[in-house]
C-alpha cells in the first residue's frame, strides 16, 4: 500500500521506532488501508489477532466484557496504535473496537513485521532491548501497587 503514509506517524510507536528507515518503508509498503463507516466493528474481543492497526483518521471506541458487563475502556483517535502485541506474538484481541466516526486505519500484518525483523536483525535486537526495558518498568509498577495494597 502505503508509501504515502507519513513514516513519522509509524515511528512514534515503540514497535516501529526501533526499525531502521528502510525497514520502516518496507513495512509501510506491506500495510493495507482499511476504511470503516461509523458503527462498523474493526474486531471483536476474543478474536484471533494477526495484525496491528494504526488509526490515520477518525475515532474508535474500545469496549470489553468482564463478568458479563460491557465496559467502555477508552476512545482512540488518529495516531493511536491498536493491537500492538499481535505484531510480536499470536494472541487474541482483549477488547472490541468499533468506529465512532468514519475511520481510516492502516493494517500492519504480523507476517510482514516478522519478515522485516528477519531481514533487519539489528532492529530485532533493538526491539528485544526496548521490550525488556518496558517489562522491567511494568514489573516495578506492579510491585509498587502490590506494596500499597499490603499497607
From TrEMBL:
Alphabetical list of InterPro entries matching this protein: cAMP-dep_PK_reg_su-like, cNMP-bd_dom, cNMP-bd_dom_sf, RmlC-like_jellyroll
One Pfam family in the UniProt entry: cNMP_binding
GO cellular component, one term: cytosol
Gene Ontology molecular function: cAMP binding; cAMP-dependent protein kinase inhibitor activity; protein kinase A catalytic subunit binding
PROSITE patterns: CNMP_BINDING_3
Superkingdom in the source lineage: Bacteria
Occurrences of domain Cyclic nucleotide-binding (ranges): 15-117
PANTHER family recorded: CAMP-DEPENDENT PROTEIN KINASE REGULATORY CHAIN, CAMP-DEPENDENT PROTEIN KINASE TYPE I REGULATORY SUBUNIT-RELATED
Protein name: Cyclic nucleotide-binding domain-containing protein
Species this chain originates from: Candidatus Raskinella chloraquaticus
Amino acid at each position: 500500500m502505503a508509501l504515502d503514509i507519513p513514516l513519522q506517524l509509524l515511528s512514534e510507536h515503540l514497535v516501529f521506532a526501533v526499525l531502521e528507515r528502510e525497514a520502516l518503508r518496507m513495512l509501510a509498503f506491506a500495510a493495507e488501508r482499511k476504511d470503516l463507516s461509523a458503527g462498523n466493528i474493526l474486531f471483536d474481543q476474543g478474536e484471533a489477532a494477526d495484525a496491528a492497526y494504526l488509526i490515520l483518521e477518525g475515532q474508535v471506541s474500545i469496549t470489553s466484557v468482564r463478568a458479563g458487563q460491557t465496559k467502555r475502556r477508552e476512545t482512540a483517535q488518529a495516531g493511536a496504535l491498536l493491537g500492538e502485541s499481535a505484531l510480536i506474538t499470536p494472541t487474541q484481541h482483549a477488547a472490541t473496537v468499533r468506529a465512532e466516526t468514519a475511520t481510516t486505519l492502516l493494517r500492519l500484518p504480523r507476517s510482514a513485521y516478522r519478515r522485516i525483523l528477519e531481514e533487519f536483525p539489528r532492529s530485532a535486537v533493538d526491539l528485544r532491548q526496548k521490550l525488556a526495558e518496558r517489562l522491567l518498568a511494568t514489573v516495578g509498577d506492579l510491585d509498587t501497587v502490590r506494596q500499597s495494597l499490603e499497607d
